[in-house]
Amino acid sequence: MRMEWGRARSRVGPSIQPVYTYVLVLLSIVATLGVQGFRHERVWTPLERHYFGAYSVSQIAGVVRDNGWYTLLQIVTRKGSRLALDSDVVPVVAESGENTFALTEEALKHGAMRLEFRRTYCNNSEMHAYLGNWIYQNQTFMDLVRPALWAGLVLFFAGLLPATYLDRKRFIGLRYGKKPSGPNLMNVAKHNPTHRFRGFGLVNGKRTMLDRLFSLGKKLPVPPRKENPPVLVPVEPAPQEPVRRAAPKAGTDREFPWGTRQESVQQEHTPSKETELEHAVKPTTRRFFE
Description:
Among the domains are: 19-149, no CATH class; 183-223, no CATH class. A hairpin with a 4-residue loop joins β1 (67-76) and β2 (81-83). By secondary structure, the protein is α+β, with helices and mostly antiparallel strands. It contains 10 helices and 7 strands.
């Protein structure tokens, strides 16, 4: 039996993931869907919006199976019925709030009586070719979504370099630590907004009653500018007390039985005048033959 002592190694640490690249991919997808939605509402015709599901499903379902059910908008005439085209219908809103279609004046002149939604069972390949010829003017599915895809790709490749730089900077900061920052490592323009320094104000102590009532002239703001030198407040030195030297202790007076007193210690150590004269007078040197 093997026992391991101590604490197990922990691998939990800061997440070093390309976060900015993920955000860029998400923005590219959102931009693609946004452009596609704008084209769906503003550029496409009403029948292209109506048949888009059937047109895309018929192309995919044609690979899996042959036939399928489809709901088609047809115009009923005295001679029969036919598929409605863009020049025959106009989008309207019904009384119930549902979006529907109505016949145009041109269609009514050519003998159109009413519109009907008919569900038919037909071949998928034939339906895809029929809708592509009469409704989409032979545009494929990729032709319809290509502008939106180009918009997403352009946004992705335009932001790939900045996202890579930010991810690398974040990786280095989490792996090795960030560079120290402070007032000594930045200029005044960057340091002041960080600490919200807006200058200083001089308090006005002498104000009139009207200024005190409306709180006017309470402070005189002085914004920080280059021409404003730093204010140096002169500080008066505190008065220093004179150093008091201790008075020399007088020599202890000792009284002798014969009534005389000894002089102080300070007077004993003072050189006498006779010693000064001895040092002042130089001894005369005599020669050997004199």
